Here is the input.
Amino acid sequence: MAINKFLLFALTFQLLLILHVSSESSLITPKKFLELAKSPEVFDWMVRIRRKLHENPELGFEEFETSKLIRSELDLLGVKFRYPVAVTGVVGYIGTGEAPFVALRADMDALPMQEAVEWEHKSKVPGKMHACGHDGHVAMLLGAAKMLQEHRHDLQGTVVLIFQPAEEVFAGAKKMIEEGALKHVEAIFGIHLANWIPLGKTASLAGSILAGSGFFEAVITGKGGHAAIPQHTIDPVIAASSVVLSLQHLVSRETDPLDSKVVTVSKVHGGGTLRAFKGFSQLQQRVKEVITMQATVNRCNASVNLTPEGKESVPPTVNDMNLHKQFKNMVKDLLGEESFVEASPLMGGEDFSNFAEAIPGHFSFLGMQDDTKSYASFHSSLYRVNEDALPYGAAIHASMAVQYLRDSNKGSRDEL
Ligand SMILES: *[C@@H]1O[C@H](CO)[C@@H](O)[C@H](O)[C@H]1NC(C)=O
Ligand SMILES: [Zn+2]
Ligand SMILES: [Zn+2]
Here is the structure.
């Protein structure tokens, strides 16, 4: 009898335990998001969208068809959105409509270059190409939207979907912030496809992951004349040569050798690019000084434009420590311990930095390298997206949002 009683107790206890466990697991987990993202229903749909976008690339602030496609897919999913935000931008909302709010970001623009890859879905627009994978970024965020919308009743707050224009000219994020895209938003996550990281792995770090970046354009004027009578001319070519050489000293002589900076004169008929993790605005100032003063020494005049063709400069992209910790844990849950790679900072620039300056943000790279093919680096006319990476991106987006909202709610309860 006594044994039976004990057994009964044990059974009831187990039953309770099972009930408890199953009610927990009805909440969506990262692994389920990955399964779902790999299912034909989500995967094939993302691939179709990505290829459509790839065929019709649009430059910064001209993403009208891209934006239209995004909005029609959101409509079909039943996701509410704000439009336009920054000309072509779209901001979608999934969940309770109440705090906490967490944002996921995808950029939408292409580059002014000719695609050199011959394939079925090659760019149909001469001189324009998705050579940075932003077509894939949009597809991944829509994939996340589809899955989150399916599980909207599990969300403990609101996921904000940010489809951003004009990343390549560093202008879109800033404009979206000005137009209220981050209203109520506590944290933001961004993902970039990466050809140097293995498929299914993701890389990031706490702190500065990308450099502050900007451009410059200088016009040096002299006085023309015959090459055989140099005394009657003021040669701007000599002045420009001095400028090019002197600019090298900003990195080699004025920068701590343990800091990274880049000053590149990329065209002698034009200008160049600036990169730095620290002291970016001082660097801009010195570039201006060196150009104008070297011109003066050589009896020429110079003007320097730090935002040529409307291209802005951006601060370094700095990942928030706590978000990084949360991200790393989520990736380990989703993909396993070995799938998180500690990233090295890159001299590349990203206007995600503007979001991450306004609120805590986290930017990561998603691998697409595999053994069978080689993938050209971004901004190459041979750039290709490995579409097998799309489900990982969608699952990482969705899982991160769900986890952030859960942790945020737990955090606020703890504080009460
Ligand atoms: C430089 O600018 C000054 C003032 O505008 C002008 O007098 C001079 O001719 C210019 N020099 C050249 C080489 O263009
Ligand atoms: Zn790019
Ligand atoms: Zn990019």
User: Anything to note?
Assistant: The chain has a mean pLDDT of 90. Residues 390-415 form the longest helix (26 residues).
